[in-house]
Design goal:
This protein is an alpha+beta fold and about 375 residues long. The chain contains twelve helices and ten strands. The chain starts with a strand and ends with a helix. The relative contact order is 0.13.
Length: about 375
């Protein structure tokens, strides 16, 4: 038997997404009945908004999806993490997988997310027999509920929307399709979905949503957890260390052009974390400020949104300095980074990014006092 869930809205494409919130958004929208059939093009928005109400605005499909994604990026905590530029392991193969690993060490972000969404779920890993997991996946897909799978070794979350008993394949969506690249472990693509028969060998976690329950995580729980995550990140001093690393000329005195080019790409990747994820947080809090249920906090929400919008604009300055997306030739960027003045300028910008995190933390503490 082969079963594919039809009309699943794929994850929002582009750099503003991280794997778990984006995949969860696709799964959540399909479970709540929001499909490609009833959410296509410009229409009067009938989406699942932050408080579950109907929006009533004319809005494009992609933005419907992104609003929900931004919320769950904040709820999961991924949008608030820091990495250390001086630690090469933090940026292998890019920032996304390592933030998920850091969050795994902090707490069970899947459990917290499901508690806010009001979902019952089962979680499996390789300690469970393959046949047991496959049966759970098939039951979920037969019930029109996509499954979340985290494929290793790089913490890549995907929405799984189909299976084939005969071949043992699983089918899923990848937001890298038609954007940056294809999922590297995919055995092939069919009808816009990748398929994988050796999925059990690749899994880190499998999350199967089994039903709905009462919401046990509130917005106040989310805000308190944001405080704890930001406090934890400040204690790591990852951003502070990154700035100090760039100011220490001894690290770079023997660098050649090739090494400075590699440094430019590392800085581009490193700055992508606060650029993408603080931007997502800014957009989320701008939406939260419009909710009647949270109207007593709207002034704090606006302050947070403005601070992290400033982080986004500040990060763009760094990206232009290191030639992100071909904005400057590689040889020019390597020559620029050979200058201690340019490296200090980037370090100063990282200090601003870190300071904005500190100010958001102050704002959240005042709000929850």
């Amino acid at each position: 038997m082969k079963k594919i869930i039809d009309n699943v809205i794929n994850r929002p494409e582009g750099c503003e997404t991280s794997k778990f919130p984006a995949s969860f958004t696709s799964v959540r929208m399909r479970i709540e009945g929001l499909t490609t059939e009833n959410q296509v093009g410009n229409l009067r928005c009938d989406k699942l908004l932050l408080n579950g109400d109907r929006c009533g605005k004319i809005i494009k499909l992609g933005k419907c999806h992104e609003i929900i994604h931004n919320l769950y990026a904040v709820i999961s905590g991924i949008s608030l993490l820091q990495l250390d530029l001086s630690n090469e392991e933090h940026l292998k193969p890019w920032w996304g997988p390592n933030t998920a690993k850091l969050l795994d060490e902090y707490d069970d972000y899947v459990k917290f997310t499901m508690g806010f969404a009001g979902y019952l779920y089962e979680k499996f890993d390789k300690k469970t027999d393959k046949a047991v997991i496959f049966d759970a996946i098939k039951r979920s897909i037969n019930a029109e509920r996509p499954v979340l799978i985290n494929f290793g070794p790089y913490y890549d979350w995907f929405p799984i929307t189909g299976y084939d008993d005969e071949t043992g394949r699983l089918y899923g969506y990848d937001n890298l399709q038609d954007s940056w690249d294809e999922y590297p472990a995919a055995e092939g693509y069919e009808d816009g979905m990748f398929y994988l028969s050796r999925w059990y060998e690749e899994i880190t976690e499998v999350v199967v949503i089994t039903g709905k329950t009462e919401q046990i995580v509130t917005y106040n729980d989310v805000f308190q957890r944001m405080i704890h995550i930001l406090e934890t990140m400040q204690k790591t001093e990852y951003f502070k260390r990154s700035a100090e690393y760039l100011r220490n000329n001894d690290y770079f005195k023997n660098y050649d052009n090739k090494q400075f080019t590699q440094l430019a790409r590392r800085i581009e990747d490193f700055i992508g974390l606060p650029m993408d994820q603080r931007s997502v947080t800014s957009l989320c809090f701008n939406e939260l400020a419009m909710l009647d249920a949270l109207k007593d906090k709207w002034q704090y929400f606006k302050r947070i949104s403005i601070l992290y919008d400033n982080t986004l604009k500040t990060c763009w300055t760094v990206w232009r300095m290191v030639g992100a997306f071909g904005s400057a030739p590689a040889d020019e960027c390597s020559k620029a980074l050979a200058s201690p003045i340019v490296r200090r300028a980037i370090a100063d910008i990282i200090d601003i990014i870190n300071r904005n995190d500190e100010l958001v933390l102050v704002c959240l503490r005042e709000m929850m006092a």
